[in-house]
Protein backbone atom coordinates (compact mmCIF):
# COMPACT_ATOMS: atom_id res chain seq x y z
CA UNK A 1 0.00 0.00 0.00
CA UNK A 2 2.81 2.33 0.90
CA UNK A 3 4.61 1.83 -2.45
CA UNK A 4 1.45 2.76 -4.40
CA UNK A 5 1.17 5.96 -2.45
CA UNK A 6 4.86 6.87 -2.90
CA UNK A 7 4.75 6.19 -6.67
CA UNK A 8 1.59 8.28 -6.94
CA UNK A 9 3.27 11.07 -4.98
CA UNK A 10 6.37 10.86 -7.19
CA UNK A 11 4.23 11.05 -10.32
CA UNK A 12 2.42 14.11 -8.95
CA UNK A 13 5.70 15.80 -8.10
CA UNK A 14 7.06 14.91 -11.55
CA UNK A 15 4.05 16.52 -13.25
CA UNK A 16 4.36 19.60 -11.06
CA UNK A 17 8.05 19.87 -11.90
CA UNK A 18 7.32 19.54 -15.63
CA UNK A 19 4.66 22.25 -15.44
CA UNK A 20 6.98 24.47 -13.43
CA UNK A 21 9.78 24.04 -16.03
CA UNK A 22 7.35 24.77 -18.88
CA UNK A 23 6.03 27.83 -17.07
CA UNK A 24 9.53 29.12 -16.34
CA UNK A 25 10.54 28.61 -19.96
CA UNK A 26 7.49 30.40 -21.32
CA UNK A 27 7.68 33.23 -18.83
CA UNK A 28 11.24 34.01 -19.86
CA UNK A 29 9.92 35.61 -23.04
CA UNK A 30 6.44 36.37 -21.73
CA UNK A 31 4.43 34.64 -24.48
CA UNK A 32 4.39 31.48 -26.50
CA UNK A 33 4.04 33.75 -29.56
CA UNK A 34 7.72 34.60 -29.24
CA UNK A 35 8.68 30.96 -29.67
CA UNK A 36 6.25 30.53 -32.55
CA UNK A 37 7.74 33.55 -34.30
CA UNK A 38 11.30 32.31 -33.67
CA UNK A 39 10.55 28.85 -35.07
CA UNK A 40 8.80 30.39 -38.09
CA UNK A 41 11.73 32.73 -38.72
CA UNK A 42 14.28 29.90 -38.59
CA UNK A 43 12.14 27.85 -40.96
CA UNK A 44 11.97 30.78 -43.40
CA UNK A 45 15.77 31.07 -43.40
CA UNK A 46 16.26 27.37 -44.11
CA UNK A 47 13.42 27.14 -46.64
CA UNK A 48 14.67 30.08 -48.74
CA UNK A 49 18.37 29.23 -48.66
CA UNK A 50 20.25 30.09 -51.87
CA UNK A 51 23.78 29.48 -53.07
CA UNK A 52 26.18 32.43 -52.75
CA UNK A 53 27.39 31.94 -56.32
CA UNK A 54 23.82 32.19 -57.61
CA UNK A 55 23.19 35.43 -55.68
CA UNK A 56 26.47 36.96 -56.87
CA UNK A 57 25.59 36.17 -60.50
CA UNK A 58 22.08 37.61 -60.18
CA UNK A 59 21.92 41.23 -61.46
CA UNK A 60 18.99 41.91 -59.08
CA UNK A 61 21.20 41.41 -56.00
CA UNK A 62 21.99 44.82 -54.43
CA UNK A 63 25.64 45.93 -54.47
CA UNK A 64 26.01 46.11 -50.64
CA UNK A 65 24.73 42.54 -50.32
CA UNK A 66 27.09 41.38 -53.07
CA UNK A 67 30.02 42.92 -51.18
CA UNK A 68 29.03 41.10 -47.99
CA UNK A 69 28.58 37.82 -49.84
CA UNK A 70 31.99 38.19 -51.47
CA UNK A 71 33.50 38.73 -48.02
CA UNK A 72 31.78 35.58 -46.73
CA UNK A 73 33.06 33.67 -49.75
CA UNK A 74 36.61 34.91 -49.10
CA UNK A 75 36.44 33.97 -45.42
CA UNK A 76 35.19 30.48 -46.30
CA UNK A 77 38.04 30.05 -48.78
CA UNK A 78 40.56 31.17 -46.15
CA UNK A 79 39.12 28.85 -43.50
CA UNK A 80 39.26 25.90 -45.89
CA UNK A 81 42.91 26.60 -46.86
CA UNK A 82 44.65 27.88 -43.73
CA UNK A 83 47.99 26.04 -44.26
CA UNK A 84 48.27 27.30 -47.85
CA UNK A 85 47.41 30.85 -46.74
CA UNK A 86 50.04 30.76 -44.00
CA UNK A 87 52.67 29.47 -46.45
CA UNK A 88 51.71 32.18 -48.96
CA UNK A 89 51.94 34.85 -46.25
CA UNK A 90 55.39 33.67 -45.22
CA UNK A 91 56.52 33.70 -48.84
CA UNK A 92 55.31 37.29 -49.20
CA UNK A 93 57.19 38.31 -46.05
CA UNK A 94 60.34 36.66 -47.38
CA UNK A 95 60.08 38.34 -50.80
CA UNK A 96 59.37 41.77 -49.29
CA UNK A 97 62.34 41.34 -46.94
CA UNK A 98 64.46 40.53 -49.99
CA UNK A 99 63.18 43.71 -51.61
CA UNK A 100 64.16 45.71 -48.52
CA UNK A 101 67.60 44.07 -48.48
CA UNK A 102 68.32 45.39 -51.96
CA UNK A 103 67.72 48.98 -50.87
CA UNK A 104 64.10 48.82 -52.08
CA UNK A 105 65.15 48.23 -55.71
CA UNK A 106 63.87 44.65 -55.50
CA UNK A 107 60.41 45.91 -54.52
CA UNK A 108 59.99 47.30 -58.04
CA UNK A 109 59.86 43.69 -59.26
CA UNK A 110 58.54 41.87 -56.18
CA UNK A 111 55.41 43.92 -55.42
CA UNK A 112 53.80 43.67 -58.89
CA UNK A 113 54.59 39.96 -59.11
CA UNK A 114 53.13 39.28 -55.66
CA UNK A 115 50.05 41.33 -56.44
CA UNK A 116 49.49 39.60 -59.77
CA UNK A 117 50.02 36.11 -58.35
CA UNK A 118 47.82 36.81 -55.32
CA UNK A 119 44.97 38.06 -57.48
CA UNK A 120 45.06 35.04 -59.78
CA UNK A 121 45.36 32.59 -56.89
CA UNK A 122 42.40 34.25 -55.17
CA UNK A 123 40.23 34.20 -58.29
CA UNK A 124 40.98 30.52 -58.87
CA UNK A 125 40.31 29.66 -55.25
CA UNK A 126 36.96 31.47 -55.10
CA UNK A 127 35.74 30.52 -58.60
List keywords for this structure.
127 residues, single chain
Describe the structure.
- This protein has 127 residues and is mainly α.
- The chain has a domain at 1-49.
- It has helices at residues 2-27, 32-47, 52-57, 63-80, 82-101, 107-126.
- Helix 5 (82-101) runs antiparallel to helix 6 (107-126).
- It starts with a helix and ends with a helix.
- The model has no long low-confidence stretch (mean pLDDT 83).
How does the overall form come out from the CA principal axes?
A: elongated
Structural class: mainly alpha
Tell me about the biggest sheet? Answer: none
Radius of gyration: 30 Å
Q: Helix tally?
A: 6
Q: What's the mean pLDDT score?
A: 83
Low-confidence stretches at least 5 residues in length (pLDDT < 50)?
none
Percent strand equals under 5%
The sequence of SSEs as H and E is: HHHHHH
Task: Summarize the entry for a quick read.
With 127 residues, the protein is an all-alpha fold. The protein is built from 6 helices and no strands. The chain is elongated.
Topology:
Layout: H1 2-27, H2 32-47, H3 52-57, H4 63-80, H5 82-101, H6 107-126
Helix pairs in contact: 5-6
Amino acid sequence: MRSDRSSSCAATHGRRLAWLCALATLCGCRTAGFYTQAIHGQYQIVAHEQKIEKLLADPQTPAPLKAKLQLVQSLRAFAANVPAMVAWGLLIVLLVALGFATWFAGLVVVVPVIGHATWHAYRELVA
